[in-house]
């Protein structure tokens, strides 16, 4: 009986997906149903929290220097291409209105270019899984925080709904800003992965964190303006995108305060800490205590506190 009810619920859910989903993306890879994406996300969580640590338990950490350099280089190229495509398909051409941009459901070539860009942006969220996988292979388990894993595990599912129901339109501004930040972020990670001799060129880490916070402010303003004006764009996605930006802004702000404010206070203390960490610990080429994906880099850590890694 219970099994029959469950199967019926799944059938009804799939019917809803097929009926209200965008017919242009429905036949595309992984787009007909949310369950394959959900399975991949759950497998990722199991891999980095259970299977990976168990596999590495009695093994030495892998260095992966060249792999990290190549990976981050490819992420820079991929992010640059996505940024160009999202811009050339709408935001840089005058076809898209920054105040209100409904979803174009036609098959105009320029419109389909944006729809394809949306799918590739969704796919990019899977490539970011390697940030965490490299943590595990290098036995940087303190970086694989709950926040980090939840963020990376949830993002493909979140973007899937956008590509399924609203591929294009107002919310692609999120992708435009996010891919631009990723170009800079993965460039930083690539330089950091090259080794300590690159340290002198990484003075701008603080400004990268600032840029990431500015990104989320821009996304908030751009999304929430639709709550005050008439626009033929789903309100549910306005709240979804806007609240994502709010959450990550405050997480990044907290990270910024802990990374760049508190150490200065400690430096004036009459009893200096003896556990100061003088070497940079790299995360996938980035520094230790920071976010991924969403997004932030690390800092020259003065304390052994490990901040949440995440966007």
Number of helices: 10
Task: Return the average pLDDT rounded to an integer.
Answer: 82
SS-derived structural category = mainly alpha
Task: Provide the number of structural domains.
Answer: 1
Strand runs, count: 2
Level of helix content? 55-70%
Based on CA atoms alone, the radius of gyration comes out at: 21 Å
Membrane topology: Multi-pass membrane protein
EC number: 2.3.1.199
Family: Belongs to the ELO family.
GO molecular function: fatty acid elongase activity
Which secondary structure elements does this structure contain, and how are they paired or packed?
Blueprint: H1 2-20, H2 35-56, H3 65-91, H4 109-127, H5 129-137, H6 146-165, H7 172-193, H8 205-224, H9 235-260, H10 262-267, E1 282-283, E2 286-287
Antiparallel strand pairs: 1-2
Which features does this protein show?
two-stranded antiparallel ribbon; globular; disordered C terminus
